[in-house]
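Q&A log
Question type: sequence-to-structure
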Amino acid sequence: MSQTNARHQSWTNNELEAAVEAYLYLLKLERSGITLSSRQVEGMAGKGHLVDRNGASIRYRLRNISHILSERGLPVLQGYSPAPAVGKNVREKIENILDNSREFIQLLQDNQQNPHAGKHTASGLVEELENLKSRILLLSDLNQTSPNFGHNNPPEDMRLECSENAEVIEAVRSIQEEVQKKNIDRNKLDQARRIVAEFGLNCVLWMRDRITDFSKAAAIAAGTAYGVSNSGGLPHEISNVLAKISSFLF
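Response status: OK
Response body:
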């Protein structure tokens, strides 16, 4: 289906789920002081379950989600003002996806209290970032063509390029170095955090249907359940770690 034709087609459940998950991830980032540009956000077009949607279509759907959240008295994404013109059927689907989302439940809790408030130590953050690197490195392994994965190999448009993985690993290392310094280079830290944040958004789309199969395949190949237990929630882990870093800084 071309993007031109898709604009006139009803959104599928998979498309709506991808949009809601991306929205909640971005909102969590924003509440941690990290705002991705509209170019980065609408770059979701043509990827994963949004492969048949263009930037304008994605923008309006995110504004619909803002409207639903605002009606519930919850925070919304900056730059995506509420758009009330959402059909009843689509609205019901979005509300159902929200109500069954772990990230949305956490948002409701966060609205009452800050779960990352309190003391975060540099050593504790370094350890969490080290765990994050391990998860990203696992993705690099899963992303390689292997007979162990068979038909579960990601299609070309969904591959996380090796150069992208290398860039985000370097960004995580840079954050580790900065949080341990007495005088933190805020520009360097902010740039590294944005690289990791954008990578997380890509992972939201890349992982939805595929990561479970990849993780199981990796676990079978390695004789361990590591992949299954540590990969599926990578975007959630990224946003959690970035939130803790923001709390540490301020």
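Response note: Residues 122-249 form one domain.
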